[in-house]
Structure to design on (406 residues):
């Protein structure tokens, strides 16, 4: 049963957690949005494809955003409680600091379970779906590629349009050149035309009106030794032709990349890795996912001592040091997984050793903060460093005018 204090602590943590989650997710998706627009721009229903691809990317980014948002939520939430002296008031009632962390530990367990589902099952499925859709986008040419006054390529055809009306997919004045290699070439000009989508066919039809056609049965020779190609010139009122081509290749089945395998599949196929993977890659991926999940249980123990401090403590520097530790730990895990994948060193050394050290550090600091009266040595060092920076910065700020009032 959650008490009133438990619910209050959760509210203080949930607000910055949700804000950090939303901002982080939007920033990560916005960076990928630019690249996706560059890939899909001009395709039929391009914005629909972009949003579909972004939806597949959400689980991938949630795997990173959730632990980062939880850590920031813990830092800002407990810092606010400490800064407003609410922790002092609660502890005066006989409630220990370790008791205040119980609801956030339960929250970490819940988010850890959610992360287990995301990285263990959802991420592999959506990663494969993202790659499959992107493959289709890149291998199905010409979904309304038209741009006014720009030469465009569609299979073996090069064309340019003028005065394009996007609402009706009509245009005025078109030039189309079709290079057929040894079979010759085909050139068409028309006064108007339109792009027509067909049900059951991913290629639009190019309909031309009032035009001329020049066809050569072979490519002309520049040395003059070969026969002159036979030319055919015709006029037409209307002609239809499919525009572009559809790739015959089919995207591979899921599982050739170890990151597309669920946790049970990684474990069962560890000794029989799929084509394109290796046992070291499978082992590194399996252990990296498990480390990322169990990290949730350590985050409250690491965050709370950094968030709590004296009223005059250098809280900004404490936050900075805490974030440096978390980012460095994340990078160590990534590099450890890469080392296991490339050289085969056991993940118990490349990843679990770092996890054990940071967990021991977090438990030690949490114990010192919650159960002893000893001064926080690390906090004292950070405060001293921050005070020194302040003493150096203040004269400089005054010299350049930042410390003076207008």
């Amino acid at each position: 049963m959650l008490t009133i204090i438990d619910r209050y602590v959760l509210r203080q943590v949930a607000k910055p957690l949700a804000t950090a989650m939303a901002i982080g997710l939007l920033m990560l998706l916005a960076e990928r949005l630019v690249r996706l627009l560059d890939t899909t721009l001009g395709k039929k229903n391009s914005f629909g494809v972009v949003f579909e691809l972004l939806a597949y990317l959400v689980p991938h980014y949630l795997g990173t955003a959730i632990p980062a948002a939880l850590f920031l939520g813990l830092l800002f939430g407990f810092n606010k409680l400490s800064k407003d002296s609410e922790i002092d008031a609660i502890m005066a009632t006989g409630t220990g600091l370790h008791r205040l962390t119980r609801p956030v530990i339960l929250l970490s367990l819940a988010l850890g379970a959610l992360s287990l589902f995301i990285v263990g099952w959802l991420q592999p499925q959506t990663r494969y779906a993202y790659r499959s859709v992107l493959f289709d986008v890149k291998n199905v040419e010409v979904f309304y590629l038209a741009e006014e006054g720009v030469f465009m390529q569609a299979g073996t055809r090069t064309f340019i349009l003028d005065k394009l009306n996007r609402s009706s997919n009509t245009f005025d004045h078109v030039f189309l050149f079709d290079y057929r290699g040894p079979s010759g070439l085909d050139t068409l000009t028309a006064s108007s035309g339109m792009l027509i989508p067909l049900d059951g066919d991913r290629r639009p039809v190019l309909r031309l009106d009032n035009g001329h056609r020049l066809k050569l049965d072979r490519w002309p020779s520049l040395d003059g030794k070969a026969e002159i190609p036979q030319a055919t010139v015709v006029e037409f009122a209307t002609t239809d032709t499919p525009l572009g081509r559809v790739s015959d290749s089919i995207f591979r089945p899921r599982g050739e990349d170890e990151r597309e395998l669920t946790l049970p599949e990684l474990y069962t196929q560890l000794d029989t890795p799929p084509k394109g993977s290796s046992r070291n890659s499978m082992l590194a991926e399996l252990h990296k996912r498990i480390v990322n999940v169990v990290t949730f249980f350590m985050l409250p123990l690491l965050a709370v001592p950094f968030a709590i401090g004296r009223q005059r403590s250098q809280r900004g520097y404490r936050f900075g040091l805490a974030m440096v530790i978390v980012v460095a730990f994340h990078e160590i895990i990534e590099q450890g997984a890469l080392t296991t994948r490339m050289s085969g060193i056991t993940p118990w050394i490349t990843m679990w050793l770092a996890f054990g050290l940071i967990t021991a550090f977090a438990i030690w600091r949490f114990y010192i903060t919650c159960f002893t009266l000893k001064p926080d040595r690390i906090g004292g060092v950070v405060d001293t460093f921050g005070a020194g920076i302040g003493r150096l910065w203040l004269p400089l700020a005054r010299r350049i005018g930042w410390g003076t009032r207008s």
